[in-house]
Design goal:
With 745 residues, the chain is of the alpha+beta class. It is built from 15 helices and 35 strands. The strands form nine sheets. It has a seven-stranded mixed sheet, with helices on one face. A hairpin with a 5-residue loop joins strand 11 and strand 12. The radius of gyration is 27 Å and the shape is globular. 52% of the residues are buried.
Length: 745
């Protein structure tokens, strides 16, 4: 059936205004010199265009290199989608703060011939002017330059986010890679001052805040991860300290290897807890410092962020802290020149990255009206339409989100919570946001209490109390590390990520289990289907196709209500959560109410269960590791906790009340005795059907929308699939957004 979707054309309105501005200076563009960019590019990989402009220094006052020049490059795709990409002053283009290079970074999302055009103008404070406020601007050097560039089809062997593209909000409770799968976040929330690293230029601990007495000079070095650096990784040295990049790059390599796929960090914590991370030339808080950016440091930041992208780690960029002094560091806490420039500089330099989540503030003090203004400002600047969230105080979710529900400028939560509330918060806010018309991605980003968080001694407790209740209720998670001193380290002083390694592994195993067995866009919490057992039992999935369950014990007293079809056939298989291994052969049961049965091992341990609905097809069996051998041999906190999966060609066993007649069972057994050919063929057909379905889903989600709004051509804009039960989206308060109903077949 056609899927109804809505489009919010606020970004194209901005393109329209820019077109007017470009027309004002068209007479100057005929002789413009060509900009500098590579001869070709690749879909989903960075494309850099350099424009030669006036010579300047990062410390100049007049003209101001960050405020008094405005570079925008419009990239138009083969199908006509236009993106206005803000540029930035790049010094000499190689990290030195003096030069004549203005730069724009872009990531093309289509193969084929792209058209680019340059708008480069100067006027006082033009960088932060709204389109309608741009008057008396003068063209600069290559203003009006245009050209074409060929973009090759994506390289599906490229590393990290470069293969399957941008993490996009698609109107569901999960983000999705544009040409790939739905994405479940499993990240680290600490240290929040991850970029307070001695290997970056001009990164010095400032007085005030929380004293980081255990860190040398109050900044990170990540010495425990220097040996995780690999040849070919980014390598640079701080001109301030002489420390090189190997520690932070090695930490990224380690976390990626453990399956961590998101890192939360503050790009500016002056006036906050750490007080060593800032993108400015100085930390004084003066108007000069707050509007002049440190080009060498940002050049180094970009190398690290790009490496994160290549290692499959998203950047969760938290734009402010909850401390009053930090909140008021820019524009006395308002959205003025300094904060608008801060947003523009970060978007211009880093929005090309495929994996980003913008977060307006930790434990925001801004208030809902200002939060909406800030989100709109980011949305206007960010051509890539990355998801936007704002962080809550502990368990005070409604106070933060009630005024924001239904706003098209927010896509996700960022929730601080108590462990005992993890499941309830996840399920409640899935429901609340869906009822408001825009289902948000439900991210739980900080587990309390503040002094404890995730340590090396409570991993098993939080695995049971938080990880599975969140994941099996349809949420995402990042782990906060508490306030521990070294050697363990906490939210400000972590130097070694290894002590918490088992949790990273458990996250990865659980994510893989969910992604392997569910279509996440159709999955929902279904705990109510289960009777018997305990109140901690978790059921998640789609009752028409596939369900997964996490059970805190393996007792055999649980029944599951699977609807009104008494002839429905389901495959039931048990898995060990610590390894992800299947420890039983799939068993076929039939009926509208089924007994899950007893775990094929320690009934006091916790278990994963997969129930797959069968449509006269034998399910593909999972490789089986016998539970007795597996449990005896595995140290759950060892890297060897996941033994290699062996090949298996087993067929499901018919059993239980309501099972198929004996003749069906006999046929299945006969196939297995004949070398497993029937089961292998059925498994192959099921795998092929699944692959085709996933491909169709990916193609459907990338459908482009073209419509007409007043006199403005609407090309690729904010596309939000809306299911029939979704309510209408609210328009922005300024009346600048209207929706056009279209449908995608």
């Amino acid at each position: 059936m056609p899927r109804s979707i809505r489009q919010a054309p606020q970004r194209i309105g901005r393109i329209h205004h820019r077109a007017v501005v470009a027309a004002l200076f068209s007479s100057f563009s005929a002789a413009a010199a060509a900009a500098h960019l590579p001869p070709s590019a690749t879909q989903w990989q960075p494309l850099v265009i350099d424009v030669a402009g006036p010579a300047a220094s990062e410390s100049d006052l007049s003209p101001h290199p960050f405020l008094d020049y405005r570079l925008d490059v419009t990239f138009t795709s083969p199908t006509g989608n236009a993106y206005v990409v803000p540029g930035f002053f790049a010094g000499n283009g190689r990290g030195f703060g003096t030069g004549n290079i203005w730069r724009s970074r872009f990531t093309p999302d289509e193969p084929g011939t792209w058209r680019w055009s340059v708008s480069f103008v100067t006027a006082p404070d033009i960088a932060v002017a709204e389109p309608g406020e741009i008057v008396n601007a003068s063209p600069v050097s290559e203003h009006g330059a245009t050209g074409d560039i060929e973009v090759a089809e994506r390289d599906d062997t490229a590393p990290g986010f470069l293969a399957d593209g941008r993490l996009e909000y698609v109107g569901e409770h999960y983000l999705k890679q544009a040409d790939g799968d739905y994405w479940i976040k499993g990240g680290v929330d600490s240290p929040e001052n991850f970029f307070g690293y001695a290997g970056f230029d001009n990164t010095l601990d400032q007085p005030g805040g929380i004293i980081t007495r255990d860190l040398v000079d109050g900044v990170h070095r990540y010495d425990a991860h220097v040996d995780d650096w690999r040849s070919g990784d980014p390598e640079f040295t701080s001109a301030t300290t002489g420390v090189d990049s190997r520690g932070i790059v090695g930490a990224i390599n380690y976390l990626s290897a453990q399956g961590v796929n998101s890192i939360y960090f503050l790009p500016m914590n002056l006036g906050g807890d750490g007080q060593e991370t800032y993108p400015f030339v100085g930390p004084s808080g003066s108007d000069f410092d707050n509007t002049h950016y440190d080009i060498s440091k940002l050049h180094q930041w970009n190398q690290v962020l790009n490496h994160m992208q290549e290692r499959g780690i998203a950047a969760h960029i938290v734009l402010a802290e909850q401390e009053t002094e930090n909140t008021e560091w820019l524009d006395n806490g308002e959205l003025g020149t300094q904060r608008k420039l801060y947003f523009r500089e970060l978007v211009a330099r880093f929005a090309y990255l495929n994996g980003i989540k913008w977060n307006l503030s930790e434990e925001s003090r801004f208030g809902s009206d200002l939060e909406m203004q800030m989100a709109q400002q980011l949305r206007t600047l960010d051509w890539a339409n990355h998801p936007i969230a704002v962080h809550t105080n502990k368990d005070k979710v409604a106070a933060r989100y009630e005024p924001l529900l239904g706003s098209i400028d927010f896509d996700a939560t960022s929730i601080q919570f108590s462990a005992e509330n993890a499941e309830d918060i996840t399920e409640t806010w899935r429901t609340r946001t869906q009822e408001a018309g825009l289902p948000w991605v439900i991210d739980l980003d900080e587990v309390g209490p503040a002094g404890v968080g995730l340590s090396d001694t409570n991993i098993d407790t939080l695995r049971l109390d938080v990880l599975y209740p969140v994941y099996f209720s349809g949420g995402n998670i990042e782990w906060y590390f508490g306030r521990h001193r070294l050697p363990l380290g906490g939210d400000l002083e972590t130097e070694d990520f290894r002590p918490r390694e088992p949790m990273y592994r458990y996250m990865r195993i659980a994510r893989d289990f969910l992604q392997r067995h569910l279509d996440l866009d159709r999955a929902e919490p279904l705990d109510q289907l289960l009777s018997g057992g305990t109140v901690e039992d978790q059921v998640f999935g789609d009752i028409n196709t596939s369900l997964v369950a996490w059970l805190p014990d393996g007792r055999g007293d649980r029944n599951i209500d699977l609807g009104d079809d008494p002839t429905g056939r389901w495959s039931v298989q048990w898995y060990e959560p610590l390894t992800g291994n299947a420890v039983s052969e799939p068993v076929i049961r039939a009926g509208s109410t089924l007994s899950i049965g007893e775990a094929p091992g320690d009934t006091t341990a916790d278990w994963f269960v997969h129930l797959a609905r069968l449509d006269d097809v034998t399910p593909e069996p999972e490789p089986v590791v016998q539970p007795a051998a597996a449990v005896a041999a595995v140290d759950p906190h060892s890297e060897s906790a996941a033994p290699e999966l062996g090949a298996a060609d087993e067929t499901p066993e018919e059993t239980g009340e309501g099972s198929e007649p004996a003749a069906t069972t006999t046929t299945t057994e006969s196939s297995a005795k004949q070398g497993g050919g029937g089961a292998a063929l059925a498994a192959l057909m099921l795998l092929l059907a699944h692959a085709l379905t996933r491909r169709a889903t990916a193609q459907r989600s990338r459908a482009l929308v073209v419509g007409q709004l007043d006199d403005i051509r609407v090309d690729r804009t904010r596309v939000i699939p809306v299911r029939p039960e979704h309510h209408a989206c609210s328009a922005r308060a300024d009346g600048g957004v209207r929706f056009t109903e279209v449908s995608v077949v």
